[in-house]
Amino acid sequence: MYSEELSHMLYAATGMVLVPSIDEPCGLAQMIGMRYGAVLIVRKTGGLVDTAFDMDDELHVEMANGFSFEALARAFSRYREKPNEWNDVSGKIMEIDKSWNKTSGKYLGVHNFIRVKG
Questions:
Q1: Where in the chain does DSSP place strands (E)?
Q2: Which candidate among 1, 18, 32, 64 keeps its CA 20 to 30 Å from the CA of 94?
Q3: pTM for this model (two decimals)
Q4: Residue 46 buriedness (CB in 10 A; 0-12 / 13-18 / 19+)
Q5: How much is the mean pLDDT over the chain?
Q6: How many CB atoms lie within 10 A of CB 82?
Q7: How is the chain split into domains, by residue range?
């Protein structure tokens, strides 16, 4: 039996969301996980590439929210050895604006730019 309520309770109770999909067109699982502060562990494919950013990427520290699936051992090591840092990232993930308001505003900006230039 599928239960939406139970599904969200499971996401809320976890510290990581593992999405090992070979082919993931959009990646809804990690979006739900991020709502509850879960650190992402994903394959570099489809929509997963657009939403999961490595916690050890020194060039994009502000976007860091997970690890690639290939770095599973590194993720578990970080969880065990740096729990405070892990909790900080988890809190940061929950603060990310994933709403359509932000996305639609960007779309309108591009649309207006093209219309004016066109």
A1: 16-19, 39-42, 66-68
A2: 1
A3: 0.74
A4: middle
A5: 87
A6: 13
A7: 4-117
